[in-house]
């Protein structure tokens, strides 16, 4: 019997129009009524995940910013990770080329140093507005807590950036594609899998009582942790290959789990 079900949001539970299928909402509510803990795991910050939770109308745990934070259904922060000021400044400098858009993420908001047409375009995918802060670099140097960087641009540039980040920072960071045109950079050891594992320990749930669903490379870490993992059928082939199952929808995955 599954006791913990973890769902990615973008490209999985929520489509590009920021809509959630009624069948998925109904399936999540059914799983909750049957005693399954529901967790939403996303690169988004908690304030954005709360919007999704309100649509579901179900108490959910939240794994925020790809594992940088874990929040319980009451809104209490269980765990939070952040960059050191020195490392955050080094990563920001590395990811600041003019041909890429870098969003600097903290637990309280998502920031850009200056609003441009490109940052406004990127901002449309967020559920809360990007915050323009001309002093964000100085604030980071003064200890402003930073949990994640999201970088957007053309895929070849992002692939090159991932290689360069790995060469420069190694295990001090965790970085992967989280969108077709975006990568996320977190502190080392921070990912969705580590957060799911911490939540399992908190809830006293065994690995064979867990399942998850996602569609991107940042979901692979939780695929490794959960006994049953579902990749959305539109996922990249490398993501599909790492999942134990495939599903067209979240609702289909839940139905398969509950009818075993």
Indicate the CATH topology of the largest domain: Rossmann fold
What would you say the CATH architecture of the largest domain is?
3-Layer(aba) Sandwich
- First-to-last CA distance: 8 Å
Counting DSSP H or I runs of 4 or more residues, the number of helices is 10
The name of the CATH superfamily of the largest domain reads: HAD superfamily/HAD-like
- Which structural category fits the helices and strands? alpha/beta
Total E-strand runs: 14
Helix and strand pattern: EHEHEEEHEEHEHEHEEHEHEHEH
Query: How much beta, percentage-wise?
Result: 15-25%
Low-confidence spans: pLDDT under 50, at least 5 residues?
none
Radius of gyration: 18 Å
Number of domains: 2
Give the overall shape, derived from the CA principal axes.
Answer: globular
**Order of neighbouring strands in the sheet with most strands:** 5-4-3-2-1-12-13-14
- The percentage helix is 25-40%
Organism: Paenibacillus catalpae
GO molecular function: magnesium ion binding; phosphatase activity
Protein name: Cof subfamily of IIB subfamily of haloacid dehalogenase superfamily/HAD-superfamily hydrolase, subfamily IIB
InterPro entries: Cof, HAD-like_sf, HAD-SF_hydro_IIB, HAD_sf
